Amino acid sequence: MNLRPSRALLGNVLVIGALLLIAALLLRLHVDDSGWQVAPRPRDWQWAVTSLLAYVGLCGVLWWRTRPRIERVDPSQRPVLVVWASQTGFALQLAERTADALRSAGLAVRLRSIEALDATLLAQSDRVLFVASTTGEGDPPDHAAPFLLRMDQPMPSLAHLQYGVLALGDRSYDHYCAFGHQLDGWLRRHGARAMFDTVEVNNADPASLRHWQQLLGQLGGAPTEQPDWTAIDYQPWTLVKREHLNPGSVGGPVHWLRLRPPVDQADVRWQAGDIAEIGPRHAPAVVDAWLRSHALDGDARLDDGQTLHQHLSRSHLPGVTAGGDLPTLLSLLQPLPHREYSIASAAHEDAVDLVLRRQVRDDGTPGIGSGWLCDIAQLGDTIDLRVRRNPNFHGVAADVPLILIGNGTGIAGLRAHLRERDAAGASRNWLLFGERSAAHDFHFRTELEQMQQRGMLERLDAVFSRDGAPHRYVQHRLQAEAPLLRRWVDDGATILVCGSLQGMAPAVDAVIEEVVGAERRDALVVAGRYRRDVY
After folding, report:
1. What angle do CA 232, 236, 241 make, to 5 degrees?
2. At what angle do helices 42-66 and 7-27 cross, to 10 degrees?
């Protein structure tokens, strides 16, 4: 791993090194015919000076690698602040990857160690991401000590600040990811708003890190095209259904897909709230054109039995040139990064349902992930898929009231919960859903209205921004129902929000804070009664 020591560690290294040099000189005192010599011999001084210069050079290299960076940023763009707190160096490594991912999306970034974080730096930032490890029994990293002292001091309001936390820990300890949650609580108390729920990482869990990487892509405005930090062990699922849900809509086409697991893994299980990680592929025409431009045979067989064409369809092609032999070329290829979609079917069903919107790039071509699933893959084709557990968004007991809030394709995650609760006989459910128009964008309308008629769905509030109704967006409807929201919360309801990270989620969060108060909103978060799956 490429690990950079903190400045605090560098200071310790300097002190220890000086002491070692003094001790070495003392040990090199010698005895001759006249007895003990008080000073080293000349060659000993030469050895000491040479060693000292080498040591200073090493410290200079360490300082150069740990110095505060001066980033060249667009003056019209406030950089995203990425802050790391690391005991062993792993959090620093992830923070560097985080910064690289944001830069690749065209964002300006400042990368800082947590001891450098103060009120001035926070005041100069609109968005901050923390990568924070917990050591021992819930302790912060050693170099976080200066910041911990500032946490106890008065701090100006951080109401202008949006933040996210990647909390590293070990679930075998009682205080799992404690420092990450301590940061989250401190930021909330000072008015900062979480862009998404804290992402917990148990012992470098690859799935959690891939989820973090997916969120970084959303912050940049589109899924990142950087290779996944950790490889995914996909399974070959089969596409058995695809339905266009919103023909005639002014919005992008929304498709409902159904996929079945391989026969030898028919017992695969998931829960409402879990995520499908999809391995996308290029359109065959894209691969054909690339092969022609590099004079390569797509039918050539590789060691794993695939053809070169099949391998390229799953690989990131831009920037790769076909110099040298085929093994050299293959070593340069990186797999296409995965895409994440909320599962829209319940745990007891034998297929994974997805609801996704076909994305279009600036040049009019479809996005790789949605283009593959909506346009290219045919019924009966194999889809690379892996189910990722998402326990933070799992359901609640049947006797607990549940408020489900979402917009657009966020209906996917909410539908899974409704179907799961329907099977469990839970009837205290309230759904608030927003889209563009009732005529074209009321996804699963018949299904939802039947749930309401059967009494399984106690409240159904659907709002449509293009229909001219008083409540254009879901947050407006929620605000209009403030007394009812307060009553459901008083009755012990849990709130689950699924949908867009940039618009809906923060607006809904502001309404919840307004209705129940910031302190109670934060208490709901801590108690697990207010959770979000946003993208």
Report:
1. 120
2. 170
What are 467-470's contacts with CB under 8 Å, separation 24+? 467/437, 467/438
Got the DSSP string for 161-220? -EEEEEEEE-TTSSSTTHHHHHHHHHHHHTT-EESS--EEEESS-HHHHHHHHHHHHHHT
Nearest-angstrom CA–CA distance, 88 and 133 = 9
d(CA 349, CA 395): 16
User: In angstroms, rounded to a whole number, what is the distance separating the alpha carbons of residues 337 and 315?
Assistant: 9
Kindly give, in sequence order, each residue whose CB lies less than 8 Å from that of residue 205, ignoring residues fewer than 6 positions away. Answer: none
**CA-based nearest residue to 413, from 486, 326, 342, 312:** 342
Q: Which position has the token pair 């058995």? A: 240
Q: CB under 8 Å to 123, separation ≥6 — which residues?
A: 156, 160
* Tokens matching residue 21: 């040099």
The 10s digit of each residue's pLDDT in 159-202 is 999 999 999 998 888 889 999 999 999 999 999 999 999 999 99
Q: Which helix (H) or strand (E) holds 101?
A: helix 90-104
DSSP 146-173: HHHHHHTS-----TT-EEEEEEEE-TTS
Q: 104's torsion region: left (phi>0), alpha (psi -120 to 50) or beta? A: alpha
What does the block give as tokens for 183?
């940061």
Stated pTM of the model: 0.76
Phi-psi region of 136 (alpha: psi -120 to 50; beta: other; left: phi over 0): left
Q: What is the pLDDT of residue 6?
A: 42
Which of 307, 305, 325, 308 has the alpha carbon at shortest distance from 317? Answer: 308
Helices (H) and strands (E) in the chain, counts: 18, 21
In the sheet with 382-388, reading across from the earlier edge strand, the strands are 339-342, 275-279, 382-388, 235-244, 254-260, 352-357
End-to-end CA distance of the chain: 30
